[in-house]
Amino acid sequence: MPACGSQIVLCDLPVHVDFYRGCSHGCVYCFARRRPKCGPPPPVRPHETLASLRRWIDGYRTLVTAWCDWRIPLHVGGMSDPLQPIERERRHTLACLELLAAARYPYVLSTKGTLAGESPWLDVLAASRAVVQVSLVSPRYNVLEPGAPSFAERLRLLRKLAPRVLRTIVRVQPYRPEVLGDVLAALPRYADAGVFGIVCEGWKWKGRADAPPSVVKVAGDWCFPVDVLERDFTRLRSACHRLRLRFYCAENRLRRLSDDHCCCGVDGLAGFRPNRANLNTLLLGRPIRYRRRMREVGTAYCFKSCAQDPVSTLALPRLSFADAMQLVAGVPGYRAALGLPPL
User: C-alpha angle with apex 199: 198 to 201, nearest 5 degrees?
Assistant: First the structure.
């Protein structure tokens, strides 16, 4: 159950579950494919097991997830599509979803796979506490997603899903300004299909050479300028609201445009309690309310990947989640108060 530092710092649903390792969709923009060019990608194979999922449901936590003392909704499909073609044969995801359904455990499932609209997968999703996100940007993306169902097939999927699950969300990720007209034109079709809302995030590149001339560096990525995305996302939000669709923004620079702090579309659903203790809460000018476990010493190990120096890394065992979040947020005087030297 990965919950690494970067997800903890920025994400309301940081605990991701992948029932497969690898993905046959072959989307050219996929961040999970950012790996050294050392030959063909490895074959797709099952990943998280029923046993590990059952332990999580029963309350077992590792050093990385020690901060989490509640049934936080899981994000199914963070690095690999849980309903890609291999699932028809292996049915590994089906078995895991049956376990989640039996436990009434809340989750958000992200997919491009049309298996979500077929029995028995649709029947299990309908019996679950599930929000289903379907990636759907533009028909122009069909050539960029060579192993995935087409835009039209996924649009038909939405009509099957929406009446059966708690909510359907359309993922307009990754977004490029040249498809603004396509997305605007598709919104009435989403509303007619029963979609609850859309979530938008801009395209990102690791290397400058592959990106358009207008991009800017943001942390480790090359991204579209924030004013360009704000202009387009503001138009999309207005269009969504006219159609009574919710608008969510997964672009961290523009979270203030979102209809809810959590961009996954779970707002207002009973039993779907996200993690609000992150930097986006602070950036939106809201106070962080830490849970009891987050204040206990030894719950900061999930921040290991964020530590910027060896001293901070060695200090993690004696810090709480709340301590580490203050360090990451750069609260003045907090390093000194914890007995750590300045960076």
Answer: 140
Distance CA 145, CA 163 (A): 27
Q: Are strands 45-46 and 74-76 parallel, antiparallel or unpaired?
A: unpaired
The CA dihedral of 1, 104, 172, 238, to the nearest 10 degrees, is -130
CA atoms within 13 A on the CB side of 142: 9
Longest dimension (CA), the chain: 58
Lowest mean pLDDT segment, chosen from 60-74, 83-97, 208-222, 322-336 = 322-336
Measured between alpha carbons, how far is residue 51 from residues 47, 60, 95 in Å? 11, 11, 11
Q: Which residue has the higher pLDDT, 230 or 3?
A: 230
| DSSP string computed for 196-236 | -EEEEEE-EESSGGGS-TT-EEETTEEE--HHHHHHHHHHH
- CATH T-level fold of 50-58+66-271: pyruvate-formate lyase- activating enzyme (3.80.30)
pTM of the model: 0.91
Chain segment 113-141, per-residue pLDDT in tens? 999 999 999 999 999 999 999 999 999 99
Task: Give me the helix-helix angle, 180-193 and 151-161, nearest 10°.
Answer: 30
Residue 179 scores a pLDDT above 80: yes
Sign of CA dihedral 69, 70, 71, 75: negative
Question: What percent of the chain is predicted at pLDDT more than 90?
Answer: 67
Q: Domain locations in the chain?
A: 50-58+66-271, 293-337
Where residue 28 falls (left for φ over 0; alpha for ψ -120 to 50; beta otherwise) is alpha
Q: Each residue of 30-42: pLDDT tens digit?
A: 876 654 444 455 6
Residue pointed to by tokens 């940007």: 137
